[in-house]
Amino acid sequence: MPVVVQNIERAALADIDALAQYGVATIHEAQGRTGLLAAHMRPIYTGAAAAGNAVTVSIPPADNWMIHVAVEQCQPGDIVVIAPTSPSDAGYFGELLATSLAARGVRGVVLEAGCRDIKALSEMKFPVWSRAISAQGTVKETLGDVNLPLSIAGQIVNPGDVVVGDDDGVVIVPRASVKAVVAACKAREEKEAGTRAALASGKLGLDIYSFRDKLKAKGLRYVGSAEEISS
Q1: Phi, psi of 108, rounded to the nearest 5 degrees
Q2: Beta 128-133 vs 91-93: how paired, if at all?
């Protein structure tokens, strides 16, 4: 039976904002290369960035009725995460729904389907990550679920998990892990700052990362010219 869960646990916005200062790539690496949504989930405009608590929405193909239902359940700092029950690239989401969500303090949408009104959404600076861009409209006939665990783009998202999106894609951080992942991101950034300075000084990654012995052990051979290859 379709259901709307009205009360979910959320991560503190202060913790989310601490996480948001790191990019998706850093977060993904810092939490053991987990939580990354499939590469087909792309921002609709360059420079889109958002982090917030997941409000999950399961929807039928080509039917966006439950997105309207979900708007009422949103709080400031949320990101609405939407997936159809079977593949559909129809344009589920556009300017009017974004206006409604923005009025409630929602920070963005992650949608494994189609998005439309791209020019208006870009001008609004309302971040959306979607599988497709499509002007194809949807109907409002069939029920779905709000705030139940959701399978989207290769990951399971629980209501209240933290969603972070930028130009590199979207990563999910379990709500209970946010503080630990922030600490891991900070340590990674500090380490990379040293590596960046070394690279900028002209040092080679081959030496910084001690790759030479491993490359030799794998059989890599250096020759002065192509004529030497067969000698």
Answers
A1: 170, 180
A2: unpaired
Going by C-beta distance under 8 Å and a sequence separation of 6 or more, which residues neighbour residue 111?
Answer: 82, 83, 92, 93, 128, 129, 130, 131
In sequence order, what are the beta bridge partners of 169? Answer: 166
Model pLDDT for residues 91-140, shown as the tens digit of each residue: 999 999 999 999 999 999 999 999 999 999 999 999 999 999 999 999 99
CA nearest 129: which of 83, 88, 97, 165? 165
Residue 75 neighbours by CB under 8 Å, 6+ apart: 10, 53, 104, 105
Host H or E run for residue 111: strand 108-115
At 162, list the tokens. 């933290």
Q: CA 83, CA 69: separation in Å to the nearest integer?
A: 14
CA–CA dist 79, 170 (Å, integer):
11
**In whole angstroms, how far apart are CA 193 and each of 18, 181, 209?**
18, 18, 14
Q: What's the gap between Cα 99 and its chain centre?
A: 21
State the DSSP code for 142: -
Report if pTM > 0.85.
Answer: yes
